[in-house]
Amino acid sequence: MIEFQNVSFAYEKDRYVIRDLSFRIEKGESVGLIGANGAGKSTVMKLILGLLQGEGKILVDGTEVRKETLGVIRRKLGFVLQNSDNQMFMPTVYEDMIFAPLNYMMSHEEADRRVDEVLARLHLEDLKYRYNHKISGGEKRMAAIATILAMEPDAILMDEPTSALDPYNRRIVINTIRELSQTKLITSHDLDMILDTCGRVILLSGGRIAADGPAEKILKDRALLEANRMELPLSLMGRM
Question: CB under 8 Å, gap of 24 or more: what pairs does 19-26 form?
Fold first, then answer.
């Protein structure tokens, strides 16, 4: 579904934040992208979305990410931002959810049907006509996910989906992520959430892959994590 072939990127000449990166994410996989601050996680997301252009080749569902293919690429991808306020820009949840389908030339009737189906699936029917500035942070995060699902993307990219959430809303978001059938790439410092939602982890360090494998194996490797300026998930602290 997503493939990097020898991808490098520098914000400044010869100061690379991504170096010769190659990996492949298969359709339906749920992959956690982890690493310390500055490891290159956000850059990887921006490269997939075509917000940045680097060296090498990136493919999304077999289509190379280039300026002329961005329209096709972005119909296949949904991006849940870390700050939902930067994503929910219409007055109500309903208006946000229907915006993209209508802009993809879907009929109003079909777009309405899709909105109702997504809200019912996530048990968020009561949010439909709520004003975005009057719902809680957890509700807004769920609404942001619903907005992306209304687009019916093939893959979903998520940047810190549980940040700044209280324990109750964090668990709701985790359960929602686990139920999604789409290909998922999730960046987060919340390693317990990654352990709960991802079968595979890619650990970045200095713009390179330090480890790539089963989430449970990598996230239980104290020496590996500490060597890359990270710590064990909190749930494993007392057991390792």
Answer: 19/206, 19/207, 19/208, 20/56, 20/208, 21/56, 21/207, 21/208, 21/209, 22/209, 23/202, 23/209, 23/212, 25/1, 25/155, 25/183, 25/185, 26/1, 26/183
